[in-house]
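Re: pyridoxal-5'-phosphate structure - here you go.
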Amino acid sequence: MSNAASPVTSHPAGFRQVAFLDLAAQQARMAPALRARLETVLGHCQFVLGPEVAELEGRLAAFCGAAHCVGLSSGTDALQIAMMAAGIGPGCAVFLPAFTYTATAEVPLVLGATPVFVDVDPDTFQIDPVHLRARIREVRQEGGLRPAAIIGVDLFGQPAPWEALREIAGEAGLFLLDDCAQSFGGSLGGRRLGREADATAISFFPSKPLGGYGDGGALLTDCADRARLYRSLRSHGEGETRYDVLRTGMNGRLDTLQAAVLLAKLDLFEDELARRERIACAYDVGLGPHLRIPARVPGSTSAWAVYAVLLPGAEARDALQAELRGCGVPTAIYYPRPLHLQPAYRPHHDGSALPVSEDLARRILALPIHPELSDADIRHVVEAVVDSLRVAGIGPG
Ligand SMILES: *Cc1c(COP(=O)(O)O)cnc(C)c1O
């Protein structure tokens, strides 16, 4: 298939180069629709807040049943605008999981607030509500910071424990934000993610399940006042007219060209989600007897941004990764370090141990999962993993 690495003949599984992500193949599937969309934008030249942005906002809101959608320049900016609108700033404690992407902790810090890291569930990898309650209590007792917000992250495509998070946020009077950057398209209790919290941030980074061809993001909310504030903040805090500056905002708009790309992609999205689910099921069946496959959050469907398995330890994980590379199977580690141990964030951490997040960082490994994987690719990944475990002498974790 490819000359990317030399064949490893000791593997019965053999060599077949599998892609971790294949945006070129996806582009080929929608080429005519994509080109027509782009031509339209090139024709009208409304590159900032052109009609495609409003059209996409309407379709995304309808997709998940949210009342409002505001297109933004990235998932990170979506988190930031939601936090700015909620008045998060110096003196505020923002509770978030330690096992997530950098941006979740970065945004409170950029606004002068303090991230308070919470450990995650060892099976689902989602924020642990019991530890969250304990952390809020600790911050209250400590007295220096005001508990102000919770960012629940829908990690890897699956939902955070939203019922518990809503209960905790309600009791404590905290703003509840859904970082759904990885998981738009997933569902909980038969309802698409996008309405679980006061606001939901999504990302169109190219590798996310609904990825664009550059940076992009959006905020979803059922609250008209919030949506109005988000629209103002994405355009420098403007009021009724552009030169009416009501508040300090930012330049955080979604580009018209990105909206056009995403409109073309949205037509494929349901099929892609179904394909990702079929791949996950094939992995579950083939790999379940051999290693720790991802636990499904009860009552949910996943957008399968990431299919992550757990190995018994760091050595086994690294050995499997090397063996798989020799079979043409690329893997990735999300995340090699929990956020509270990152050099930039460590000084803001109170020193609490977060043992589950630390353990996952040593043992987790993500396998390729994207809609362009062929049935032969899927079979090869399963064979290569089973075979590599045997070659590396790794037993079930
Ligand atoms: C990707 C991601 C973000 C940031 O999205 P960008 O569009 O890249 O800014 C935020 N949170 C999580 C959990 C992510 O995975």
